[in-house]
Amino acid sequence: MKIFCTGASGYIGGSVAAHLVARGHHVTGLVRAPDKADAIRARGVQPLLGTLDDGARLAQAAQAADIVVNAASADHKGAVVAMLDALAGSGKPFIHTSGSSIVGTRARGHRSDAVFDEDTPITPSPARAARVALNELILSYRDKGCRPVIICPSLIYGVGHGANPDSVQVPLLIRLARKRGNAAHAGPGENIWSNVHIDDLVTLYALAIEQAPPGAFYYAENGENSMRELCEAINRMLGLPGPPAAMSMAEAAAEWGEGTAEDTMASNSRVRAKHARQLGWKPQARSLIEEIERGR
Fold this sequence. Notes:
By secondary structure, the protein is an alpha/beta fold. About 40% of the residues lie in helices and about 20% in strands. The protein folds into two domains: about 1-160 and about 195-220 and about 270-285, NAD(P)-binding Rossmann-like Domain (Rossmann fold, 3-Layer(aba) Sandwich); about 170-190 and about 225-265, no CATH class. The model has no long low-confidence stretch (mean pLDDT about 95).
């Protein structure tokens, strides 16, 4: 099959593209710069230079493909509409990447007991309202003759298989621990995120391409941990003595920026991949704590 993938040099998109190439598909990947084009070409992906603002180019690439995977941005409405309009009436799959922070609230490092599966209604925070609205717009294209599907990963970990091998949250915590000589979390660190290994995540993309019905929405998770638990594992991995430190929200914002501190590192995002497992998805990779202690 001919597959067009945005974000093909990134952590998710690059890993998905590599997995699809290994399965014998012909993958074209959108990249912004010649050096990124060289990097994905070396991995068997045909580069297409452009950006998410190049609507005409995106539409043309989508029309030329059998399948479109959007892994470059969860929030770029213009790119999504350009590709979906091009696919209208074709019956082709459009696999969009969202993120489970859509269920998060600004908890300042405190635990929430709210858990969401794909059937649980959500009221997004102001920071994620536009993303949820875009998700709803994407799924509405099931009535326009194409096959929109959303995959909504939780915290992703593990070494990626594209040009960018690193995820977001765990590397931020590790870099901070090395800088301070001790791992540190925002607030009390009791906030919990579901998580999924990148190797398991890419198999869900492949399964969704093959079997997901129009308008399907899937969380991707295989366990959950508090930020304090991650920091404790990081200290063990780095051989740092003592318990991790608790930063004030002002300190966390100074390290990571207010949005990342409030909406990612100090929030809760607890989801269950009920529909993904009903589709036949069977995650098998080692846990996040094991990955931190024994992985890369």
